[in-house]
Amino acid sequence: MDSVSVSFTLNGEPQGLTVPPAERLLGTPRYRVGLTGTKEGCGEGECGACTVHLDGLPVNSCLVLTAQVRGQSVETVESRKPDTLEPFLAGGATQCGACTPGVVMAASWILEHPELLRTHNTRELMAGNLCRCTGYDGIVDSVTAALTRNRRA
Amino acid sequence: MQRREGLAKLTGQERYVDDLPLEDFLWGMTVRSPAPRGRVTAVRFGKGVDWSQVVVVDAKDLPGPNVVKLIEEDQPVLAAGYVRHMHEPILLVAHRSRDEARRAAMAVEIVVEPETPVFDFRVTPVTNQIQYGADNVLKRLKIEKGDVATALKDAPVVVEGTYETGAQEHVYLENQSMIAWLDGDVLTVTGSLQCPYYVLAALKHTLARDESRLRVIHAPTGGGFGGKEEYPSHLALHASLLALKAGKPVKMIYDRSEDMAATTKRHPSLVHHRTGITKDGRLLAQEIDVVMDGGAYVTLSPGVLSRGIIHAAGPYACDNVRIDGRVMFTNAVPFGAFRGFGAPQTHFANERHMDVVARAIGMDPVELRQRNIIRDGQSTATGQVIRDGTDRGAVIDRALEMSRYRVKEREHTAFNASNDHTRRGMGIAVFHHGAGFTGSGEVYLKSCVRVAGLPDGRVEIQTANTEMGQGAFTIFIQIAAECLGLDPADVVVAPADTSKVPNSGPTVASRTSMVVGRLIERACGALQKRLGTTERTGRGSALKDAIVEWHRTHAGQALGAEAEYEPPPGVAWDDKTYRGDAYAAFAWGAYVAEVEVDLRTFTPRVLDFVAVQEIGKVLNDTLARGQVQGGVAQGIGWALMEECRWKDGGMINNQLTNYVIPTSDDLPPIRVEFLENPFSGGPQGAKGLGELPLDGPAPAVVNAIAAAMNNDPRVIPLTPERLMALA
């Protein structure tokens, strides 16, 4: 089997693609669709730089085959509105930016599901995203600031 | 001001090397040595690959000398018949398909006739292990002040200690990456790198092309930490050789395992202290021996050793100091620049040793530091008289106050006495870090910066310095906007492209804000002067109008003004004797860690971390805080969990699954405070900051563990296994 056909939505847009069976979900938006926001950091599900949402749940896209997402909804960092990210800019959540798209997708999952914080804290929920620049304070503080802003809105 | 490129990064719009649009190109891959030392007796191109579709480059394809130009010219671009370390590059292959390129690289069999390697830098090599000079010493340096031998002989108490630090992998989140192509006759490379002009010099030397036919463009860089100081020269040469042979663009992106196996790391170190002291804690003599593992080539090791030994006696006053330093050749993958550049290693030894000395004379470790901290008018080991007016005692006091050190110590005594399974302790480290190149380095660099007025009235800053996450571009914009009374929106930074920007030196050594920032201030002044305005009249809208008017009368011409480095007055250094002013300015720090250890698993956890430092002037609070917090996290990782495991001089845990760095859940909030005492040689009074935060965390955390466990650890990373072995 040299290729498989797969249909899914990417940031709300329907996609019908023919891809090699071993193609990773990380590579499809990057190299076929031209959405290069999603980054590869380790290629083995440790660093979280490639985090995307699959039917609303964060996944490491380096560990998902594109052929597996048939009929599902895939959201990458490009789907997030810039104005919602202002607390992250002000809070120092990004430095070199290589982990940032994954951090934004993991953080936006928390922001969309603040009930997660009843059982976990932000540091636990963000532990799947390695960052070598910030020491995490900028990220954790930004999530807190964004939650506060959302509660006010 | 907020980070200039911050929103582009948050929205995924920033284009790193692997994100750049590129058509009709080949993927490049590297074939590496399978052995640590020996003669290459055969290179076999295996079956299952259509070799007619593969571009292959070996050492014979080099147009010029087979060396990567750096301090010494000892490291080949591609090993030619002889290998000196595991994973040494031997051949390059390229193919349209990334998978096919990888398959081709894996199908090449390299046969090496093994010779006796040397791996342990701590042990004197035997004859058949000698591979560099007469004794495998890559570099030897010495600092001498006063009369150590007599002072040690006369000292009432002498305390000795040996301390060891391991290698550390940078783990920049973006791996090494580079694209090379021919643009007409101009060989152009764009890559993830810190020092465009280092890459240019390496290309010029090896490819035998003059600078008019070479161009290096910095791409947005996903972290560097020193790891993209020298290594990108190798990758740029590799991609260029393939591109020249193929006649097509070539892209090389390392995956994580190749990056960790093949690129440089922090030098492992072994430091021995012999300290003479009075019974009431006055330092009389410091005799320090520093040995580092350099790996198989010189790389930047002489500089790392130099910075290491200059910081080895710590921020203390002592009349008699002798520091002997050497870097040893081993058949390990070469070690290189890593944030701190030798100083974190020697500071770990010195600050751990201060606690050992304090215990030996029955003195409180904080009091011992307060007693000996250098005061204005006193001199460092190199004889540099410190007169910056900083109250270093106040830096320590503030760290004690913020951490509630004394209260916590008492609480921990009670806690430890009543708790079966956990122990808590406090630890402190006091340290300094010199900003900019060591000694005469900045004078030799002759850095130059240009500030240009654009036809629309905006101002463009042109430097070769790179944004890799530290916030350099934002700081540059802030400095120029402040100088010229402009809205930051009217200031832009030119991409670091060697065909367009002057050589303002490498982005290393905590020099960018302090040294290059000061040059930007001076170039802004030169621009005002060139427009016939002054510091007062050439500001804001008047300046913009003057720039627009200039372009109206000089259509098609460029309006630029430059500034070149001049050493601050009164700074003198002697390279031969290693005496004098090693750095134009030092930043000063005192860090306190509170740690808890689980006695069942021997897992330490940092409960609280306070980082107080005096850095002249904080230019941007968010960025400065981020530098400290990130540096502390990296330092805690180095202290407790980041362990390179070796086989035949190559890293075998070269993946993030088993080389573990701290996550958000491993760290407490890092509480940062800055004290300010403006430095006249820096922009708005700022001193260098980038590397300082790596110096303090390891000794502070390990001292806290020693206090908690009442033990005496000497080796980092202090993993649970090592901690258990001490019990």
Sequence-ordered SSE layout with sheet pairings:
The complex is a heterodimer of chains A (153) and B (727).
Chain A lengths: L3 E7 L2 E7 L7 H7 L17 E4 L2 E4 L12 E3 L10 H5 L9 H13 L9 H4 L11 H16 L1
Parallel strand pairs in A: 1-5
Antiparallel strand pairs in A: 1-2, 3-4, 3-5
Chain B lengths: L5 H5 L15 E7 L5 E8 L9 E3 L24 E2 L5 E7 L2 H10 E7 L22 E9 L2 H7 L2 E9 L11 E7 L2 E6 L4 H12 L6 E5 L12 H16 L3 E4 L2 H7 L6 E9 L5 E13 L5 H10 L10 E9 L13 H19 L3 H8 L19 H12 L1 H14 L3 E14 L5 H5 L2 E6 L5 E4 L9 H13 L6 E3 L18 H19 L9 H14 L5 E6 L8 E2 L4 E2 L4 E14 L4 E12 L6 H20 L5 E2 L2 E2 L18 E6 L16 H4 L1 H13 L5 E2 L3 H7 L1
Parallel strand pairs in B: 1-12, 8-28, 10-11, 14-15, 18-19, 24-27
Antiparallel strand pairs in B: 1-5, 2-4, 2-6, 3-5, 7-15, 8-13, 9-10, 9-12, 13-14, 16-23, 17-18, 17-20, 21-22, 23-24, 25-26
Helix pairs in contact in B: 4-5, 7-8, 8-18, 13-14, 16-18
Structural notes for this entry:
The complex is a heterodimer of chains A (153) and B (727). Chain A is of the alpha+beta class and 153 residues long. Chain A has 2 domains: 4-77, Beta-grasp domain (Ubiquitin-like (UB roll), Roll); 80-152, [2Fe-2S]-binding domain (DNA polymerase, domain 1). Chain A has helices spanning 27-33, 86-90, 100-112, 122-125, 137-152, and strands at residues 4-10, 13-19, 51-54, 57-60, 73-75. Chain A has a 5-stranded mixed β-sheet with strand order 2-1-5-3-4, covered by helices on one side. Chain A starts with a strand and ends with a helix. Chain B has 3 domains: 6-115 and 176-253, Aldehyde Oxidoreductase, domain 3; 269-438 and 577-726, Aldehyde Oxidoreductase, domain 4, CATH 3.30.365.10; 447-564, 2-Layer Sandwich (Aldehyde Oxidoreductase, domain 4). In chain B, the strands form 7 sheets. Chain B has a 7-stranded mixed β-sheet, sandwiched between helices. Chain B is globular. Chain B has 727 residues and is of the alpha+beta class. The two termini of chain B are 50 Å apart. Chains A and B meet through helix 2, helix 3, helix 4 and helix 5 of A and helix 1 and helix 16 of B.
